[in-house]
Write a structure and sequence with these properties.
2 domains; alpha+beta
């Protein structure tokens, strides 16, 4: 049978067309399958804690209070931290509303931090101040750059199907302490949300320890400052001797104590006023009397100090009885105040213990832990 050239080409063209359509159909199916796979994968990623973590990082840089409120359960986190703080500082804001009060303070500080109200100038002051100056500043609960530190150090840790752990590293310059808050990220019907502060109790105890250490460091600064002023006064008007005696007057009711001090103005300034801290002890070394004695004077440079101080006591008073029973008195004295012709006044106060007990009845903790200097609100 004879085939024409045109019919041959027509048959080949028809066969090629059918193969092309099949190939295109297979390619379309493959593309749809690949697209569906990646779409499903992207959908799964958007439901994951990794995607929620990225969203949280974006809400933190720069801080957006509105976005953070959606992604963080601040109410629960603040309550957990308030409960832990109440355990570490049981007498601060003590009472039925203690947790509520602490929670409000914490939420206020977190809100201020999220709005950036504690950064800027506060950060510059912290960087510029030396350690002694920082210690004497009122303590802030959060460092000025809290949100910046939190955002840059936040890491995603252990992950399972419905939860994950986050941690950040916060350096507090005023406390010289590094804190590592651990947060729990939970899957909820409304998406992933930061729900818990896992180590709230540990952070509160760490904060308490740092506060006590800060109080001791502040006390050390006061000790050094007092020592420096005392040395200055001793070099200005050094005391060579101090003696004391006591005796009854003729009425047998009045006890007269006389202290005799001798010294020398070794400075280039005139001493205009003096206050002497006098302590009298018995032969066993027990303190029987202490007085701060004041006097106006005019002691030029190079002049001698030779002064008698008198103290009248009721012989029947507790102090009078102790002085009479002491017999031979031993006296020690230091300068409390020296007013100089340059208008400078050198003065020292008594130093309390580093961590004195609280003066409030039944408060079994160091002084200050129930007062505002610990928490600035």
């Amino acid at each position: 049978m004879k085939l024409s050239l045109s019919s041959l080409f027509g048959s080949a063209k028809s066969t090629l067309s059918r193969h092309t359509h099949r190939l295109l159909a297979l390619l379309l199916v493959a593309l749809l399958a690949v697209g569906g796979y990646y779409s499903w994968g992207y959908y799964q990623y958007r439901q994951s804690c990794q995607f929620a973590f990225v969203g949280l990082q974006q809400a933190l840089t720069p801080p957006s209070a509105e976005e953070l409120a959606v992604r963080v359960d601040f109410n629960t986190v603040a309550e957990e931290l308030a409960t832990a703080t109440a355990e570490a500082f049981p007498f601060y804001r003590a009472g039925e509303d203690q947790i509520h009060s602490l929670k409000s303070i914490i939420q206020t500080h977190l809100l201020r931090a999220s709005l950036g109200k504690d950064s800027g100038e506060g950060k510059k002051k912290e960087e510029a101040a030396d350690e002694a100056s920082l210690l004497m500043h009122p303590l802030q609960i959060l460092p000025s750059d809290f949100m910046a530190q939190f955002a840059t150090s936040l890491k995603l840790d252990k992950v399972d199907e419905n939860s994950a752990l986050l941690h950040a590293v916060i350096r507090h310059p005023m406390l010289k302490e590094t804190y590592t808050p651990i947060l729990r990220l939970l899957r909820t019907p409304d998406g992933w949300i930061v729900r818990n502060l896992v180590n709230a109790k540990e952070l509160a105890l760490q904060f308490r320890t740092a506060v006590l250490r800060r109080l001791e460091a502040r006390h050390a600064i006061l000790v050094n400052k007092r020592s420096s002023v005392l040395k200055r006064m001793e070099s200005t008007l050094p005391l060579r001797s101090c003696t004391a005696s006591a005796g009854l007057l003729s009425d047998q009711k009045t006890l007269l104590v006389v202290a005799h001090t001798m010294g020398h103005n070794a400075s280039t300034l005139t001493v205009k006023n003096i206050a002497l801290d006098l302590s009298l002890k018995d032969t066993a070394g027990q303190l029987v009397l202490r007085r701060i004695l004041n006097a106006s004077c005019d002691i030029p440079p190079g002049a001698e100090l030779d002064r008698h101080w008198t103290i009248e006591l009721d012989a029947q008073s507790e102090e009078g009885k102790r002085v009479l029973a002491a017999g031979q008195l031993t006296s020690t004295a230091i300068w409390r105040t020296l007013s100089l012709s340059s208008a400078e006044v050198l003065h020292v106060e008594d130093l309390p213990p580093a961590l004195p007990p609280c003066a409030v009845h039944q408060h079994q903790h160091p002084h200050g832990l129930c007062l505002k200097p610990i928490f600035t609100d």
